[in-house]
Design a protein that fits this description.
By secondary structure, the protein is of the alpha+beta class. It has one domain: L-fuculose-1-phosphate Aldolase (3-Layer(aba) Sandwich), CATH 3.40.225.10. The protein is built from three helices and five strands. A hairpin with a 2-residue loop joins strand 4 and strand 5. It starts with a helix and ends with a helix. This is Nucleoid-associated protein YgaU.
């Protein structure tokens, strides 16, 4: 294995751990429901990890490794992911090189420069949505 390949393997593993923790945190807080997704770019690569289809919780190895052209990296761990969701997230990573993570909660798409920023913004958006639902305009 080359040094570059080893560095990439470490970056993917770290991102898997971080995205699994973020996904669990958002689901525990009620921000994500079934069908909602989190994705995160792997370092400065044209790769990202995305929540697989199916019932949460997802361990780190369950997240799907994909390229920003919306193709799943073959021979890597991970579940299945809906083609439409994969293409949506991939398009956003291609369009914005500074995008580090994306949280999809219902119709909301919350972007962040990194996973922590996206998670924090998603939590804030959920609070605002809940407050608006509790106090509809008269």
């Amino acid at each position: 294995m080359t040094a570059r390949a080893a560095e990439l393997e470490v970056a993917v593993a770290r991102t898997r751990e971080a995205i699994a923790a973020a996904d669990a945190r958002l689901r525990d807080a009620g921000v994500l429901d079934a069908g909602d997704r989190v994705s995160a770019r792997v370092a400065d690569e044209a790769l990202f990890l995305i929540t697989p289809d199916g019932v949460a919780p997802h361990g780190p190895e369950g997240f799907v490794l994909a390229q920003d052209d919306a193709t799943v990296v073959p021979h890597t761990p991970g579940g299945e992911v809906d083609d439409v969701a994969l293409a949506d997230h991939a398009r956003r990573y291609r369009a914005d090189a500074a995008l580090g993570a994306l949280v999809q909660s219902g119709e909301l798409r919350i972007a962040g420069a990194d996973l922590d920023a996206a998670v924090d913004a998603a939590g804030s958006a959920r609070e605002l949505r809940d407050r608006a639902a509790a106090h509809p305009p008269t």
